[in-house]
Amino acid sequence: MALLDASKAGQIPRTPQGVTPFQKLFGERYPDGAKWWSYMKREVIDPQRHLAANPKKTEIEDFAALSQEIKQMTLDLGAAQVGIADYNPAITFTDAEDLGHKSVVVFLMPMAFDVMIDIGPKSQEDVHKTYFLLDELATRLATRISAYGYSASVQANRGEIPLPAYGQQAGLGELGKHGSLISPELGSAFRISAVSTDMPLVADGPADFGIDEICTKCQICTRFCPGDAIPAQKVDVDGILRWQIDTPACHPHFLRLYGCKICLSVCPMNALGDKKAEYKDVAKDIRAAKDAPGMLALINTRGVLKMDDFNDLAAKLTPEERELVWWEKPYPLRTANYDGLKD
């Protein structure tokens, strides 16, 4: 099976955030709705991430049966897909707290596809809304698990674990060339969250859906990435041979395009999932645009991106101001294909 071999995995450096003036420009035009959802997540949900165990532990005779109950509970709370993975201390971020957990319940929630492909303020707001709903669901699930007498932690987007890796280990999909998990049911149009726990649940394990082979042959996300940030070949990353995004090349375009999501939108796996009808419009755009510059021009005629305004502000930044601090080391932002900005 063409699945990630995690046997030699090492802990993963966390991608830095908020370290360049590009990030400041991004924040200055945050939609009000996105600010509201972000506030709710940051101030209401995040403080409840770690749930203490009920001191009166429930005696459980059949953890396999309970694992199925936990998964059904997750679906009942609003998840679209759910799976269980074994917790692996090696597959965590380098700054992660050692929680001593044994299992990870991973679940997916679909994005509104027509909003996601808008590539603008509406899509950014929907991302933050989905993250809030996921973490709200995760908090409720963690509360129920902790009531059995086991500790539980919400593994949000900035938690202790890399969510796409655990999504694959839970049998929910495979890591795609664009660096995100691809689900056979939901394509690339979803977000992911998880709850880790010291409850010894029965893992589903990874599954081969043939997605890795499709990504190997497919070049659509590579062709339409405005930053040339999606390499055609896998590389060894922290002990795992996998697809790896060139984050410094992606970063300025992510910030300019309200979080971008072009790679997720053009992914043809969306047509094989539950977005087949909606993907037809994207397929028409792919044929019309032909490449990344063509897609940017097409998007700019339809929405309120105001890319020229952002570019004018970005162009005034010095090379030093465009510097990214990557794992405590300065790293110049790659600005190739960025309307004349040079490294």
Question: Would you mind describing this structure in some detail?
Answer:
With 343 residues, the chain is α+β, with helices and mostly antiparallel strands. It folds into two domains: 183 residues, no CATH class; 120 residues, no CATH class. 40% of the residues lie in helices and 13% in strands. Strands 1-4-7-3-2 form a five-stranded antiparallel sheet, sandwiched between helices. A hairpin with a 5-residue loop joins strand 5 and strand 6. Helix 2 packs parallel to helix 5 and helix 12 crosses helix 13. The longest helix is centred in the middle third of the chain and has 26 residues. The two termini are 40 Å apart.
Major β-sheet, in short?
A: 5 strands, antiparallel
DSSP helix fraction: 40-55%
Choose one word for the global shape.
Answer: globular
What low-confidence regions span 5 or more consecutive residues with pLDDT below 50?
A: none
Number of domains: 2
The end-to-end span amounts to 40 Å
Strand content: 5-15%
- Going by helix content, strand content and strand pairing, the class is alpha+beta
Number of strands: 11
Q: What is the chain-wise order of helices and strands?
A: HHEHEEHHEHEEEHHEEHHHHHHEE
Radius of gyration: 20 Å
Q: Summarize model confidence as the mean pLDDT.
A: 89
DSSP helical segment count: 14
Give the neighbour order of strands across the main sheet: 1-4-7-3-2
Précis, in short:
40% of the residues lie in helices and 13% in strands. The protein has 343 residues and is of the alpha+beta class. The strands form 4 sheets. It has a 5-stranded antiparallel beta sheet with strand order 1-4-7-3-2, with helices on both faces. A two-stranded antiparallel ribbon has the order 5-6.
